[in-house]
Amino acid sequence: MSTVPIVELRDVSKNFRSIQALDHVDFDLREGEVHALVGENGAGKSTLMRILAGIYTDYEGTYFLDGKETRLNSPHDALAHGIGMIHQELSVIPELSVAENLYLGRQPVTRWGAIDWKKMYRNAEEELAKLGFTLDARLDLEQYPLGTQQVVEVLRTIVSGARVLIMDEPTSALSPAEVEQLMALVDTLRQQKRSIIYISHFLEEVLHVADRITVLRNGRSVATLTRAEASLDRLIELMLGREVDHTVRPITAESEHEQTLLEVKDLTSDKFRDINFRVGRGEILGIYGAIGAGHFDVARALFGLYKLDSGTIILEGETFPPNHSARYAIRHGLAYAIEARRKSLLLDQPIYQNITMPHLERIGRFVPQQAQELAAANPTIAQVNVIPPDPLNPVGKLSGGNQQKVAIARWLTFPPKVFIMSEPTRGMDVGAKSEVLALLRRFGEQGYGIIVVSSEPETILAVSNRVIVMARGEIVGRMVNKNLDKDALMRLI
Hints:
The strands form 4 sheets. The chain has a 6-stranded mixed beta sheet, with helices on both faces. A 6-stranded mixed beta sheet has the order 16-17-18-13-19-20, with helices on both faces. It has 18 helices and 20 strands. The radius of gyration is 24 Å and the shape is globular. Helix 6 links the parallel strand 7 and strand 8.
């Protein structure tokens, strides 16, 4: 590996009006290196990434490319210089074939100007083979799993001429098996002398894949460590400037939660079958599975958002009618925070309106006035510690962790009996995760029943009293064990 940086930023600063997003940051990337970038939400990762990718052009400091000072004017300009960005949300077109996705806008043509389909399919399969993948380039991309679609997105960026890849949270929506597939791809690219900037909240993943790790805190680069120098505790300390309890919470015995709040019997749909479990008062039940296991569909069905073929839901002795509505679920004591929290929130609307939105008919006889909504929302804002606590602040201006607090707070206006939380910590930094998980534990201690549905084993282990493991639409494991660990969970899926 060459020690000469391909990309180097020196003394880079960036302001957004009164906010100092970056403060004299240094960063460099070498040939054939995976250089990870970590930090809390708001630490400056996104801003630095956008400068590297040519999205932000108005910054202070110096940008060097192959040792020469440069100034990128756009993402297109960055790609022309060999720097491509792979965003968290994939930009592939599932309805098009693998080959069409790879060569969109750059299709090979015949001498008569028509698309040379045969050549395009052949080239696509050859390029995939270089990375160790055997795919039918003629098939629509939607026929392949999400992990394979991620591979195609990476390869498309390479085919476009990128030698430097900026990967933004590339594994956030992948199953454990797909994560392994992506890790193998990253290693292949490293061997091919590609250089990768890897941004992720998954610190264990970073420790596994990165050659070096730069930590940002409050817009400053506080350290750059080699893999040998880094550890989970060290990264957390550098990111937060304080210690965080990231240890696994012991699993308690089922007998501690004898009073049943929710009982589910033989739930069956086209996505899952024969689902049976109970949730006790004050208990946190974890439902774990890989993407596609059916656990998220179970959560939606409980809340009335997915059609059941059969089964029974009993909440505090009351049996729900077949295929009840979400409104019925809310009225009878169920709350549901979906995994895509930004889609559940009105980002341009103030905090208080997001909190009162499901309860307007209860708050006011007709159309509630602002004063009524504020009176209902303010106690819950304080209860979950939204920062900043201004109820008039648009939700879109909050960090991911505080947006999640708002998504939780909306159900506290009229407290439920059971919370269903899908991926409550997805995409969050360590500090935000710690706050949200502490909030869930506190709700459990207050006597709520809580169901945490997640594909992140660390989240499940951190809060659950009992764990159900799902795979292929079925429950494949039930665990009540003080020694439950990540390996035990993952072996079942």
